[in-house]
Amino acid sequence: MYRHSVRRQFATASVLREWHQIPLAPPDKILGITEAFKEDKNPNKINLGVGAYRDNTGKPIIFPAVKKAEKKLYDNEKEKEYTAITGSKNFQDIVKNFIFNNSNKDPNGKKLIDEGRIVTAQTISGTGSLRVIADFIARFYNSKKIYVPKPTWANHVAVFTDAGLQPEYYAYYDTSKNDLDFANLKSSLQKADDGSVVLLHACCHNPTGMDLTGDQWEQVLEIIQQKKLFPLIDMAYQGFASGSPYEDISLIRRMTELAVENKIPTFALCQSFAKNMGLYGERTGSISIITESADQSKAIESQLKKLIRPIYSSPPIHGSKIVETIFNEGLLDEWLADLDKVVGRLNTIRQKLYDNLDKSNYNWDHLLKQRGMFVYTGLNPEQMKRLRDEFSVYATDDGRFSISGINDANVEYLADAINQVIKK
Ligand code: LMR
């Protein structure tokens, strides 16, 4: 008893001493930009940091279809009970049918669903799904190594490292050419350890906006088969390439086919409705694991529950109920039209930025090849610093612009600022 309390005293003392030693962490590479932007008093300031949609007046929006779904929920919702550890069955079924069965149009996806080969869990948006699958891989998979594109979303490496995985880069983009580095991409994947994990961006690669063509995907999938890599697909921007979530999903169509043929029998997909339904703060997403059999699915689902329960118990319900209402209560077409409008504005503003840029001493053609929420300008950290210090233009140091922060009122100011930092 005495020894026990002494030990506790020591433990407390050492903890207290350590509290004073905690070093200051740097601000988040992406979300920290917004904090700095808010402090800036310049009325012309522009925030091109976080990948979140703004309309042509610079304001965030709620999709009209989402507002209607919320109205229905307000009128009809009868309880706020906990949902299941892996979310509601209805939400899981919607995600499976929407993504893997292409809303009843993909026979391969349907076969996987009917055979019980897809386990879907609702998660705390895309980051939550990445963390859950990373923890799952760390716990059960025989390789801890995960190959991620260089560059990739700033948070990927942090999520995987914190989960105990060992991220390594594969070549993806050549900054000196402002283009995909496909030859090196292939050769670096060919050198990957057999049986390791590979992260693929389904569409609208973050941060570069440069995606592989169908033919290039085939070559990558060939390497994945040869090396028996486990594909982990991140799909945060479904719909932002073409305006239609059904068209942006050709990689998943091909993956379901390869899973049915047992050529790539298992893979995992992280997705969220943060961007394409504008449900950012509602934290609504999912992890799906494609398994080899219904029995495997059962075991995997039970382990996902065991993993999730001690972290956050169960996911939040408001966002998933919005998704369920949109899909099941006649709002699907309206949502698809809302999304198409959002993507249309991004494409228009991308073109306007391009039109206003001085091409006499810098080739800006890559801007028009990139797709989605971002342009990857190729500006170096020094030029980005000048944009920020001299023009109050805020974006990540890697030269990525979230173009939703651009609108008719600021596009000329921005282009002029860029032209000036390029000139000298
Ligand atoms: C981004 O890349 O800006 C978004 O995915 C938001 C985030 O959480 O980083």
TrEMBL record:
In alphabetical order, the GO MF annotations are:
L-aspartate:2-oxoglutarate aminotransferase activity; pyridoxal phosphate binding
An annotated GO cellular component of this protein is:
mitochondrion
Pfam families, per this entry? Aminotran_1_2 (PF00155)
Q: Does the keyword Acetylation apply?
A: no
Q: Which GO terms describe its biological process?
A: L-aspartate catabolic process
InterPro entries, per database record? Aminotransferase_I/II_large, Asp_trans, PyrdxlP-dep_Trfase, PyrdxlP-dep_Trfase_major, PyrdxlP-dep_Trfase_small
Residue ranges occupied by any Aminotransferase class I/classII large domain in the UniProt entry: 44-418
- What keywords tag this UniProt record? Aminotransferase, Pyridoxal phosphate, Transferase
Q: Which cofactor does it need?
A: pyridoxal 5'-phosphate
**Assigned protein family:** Belongs to the class-I pyridoxal-phosphate-dependent aminotransferase family.
- Quaternary structure annotation from Swiss-Prot or TrEMBL: Homodimer.
Mind telling me what this protein is named?
Aminotransferase class I/classII large domain-containing protein
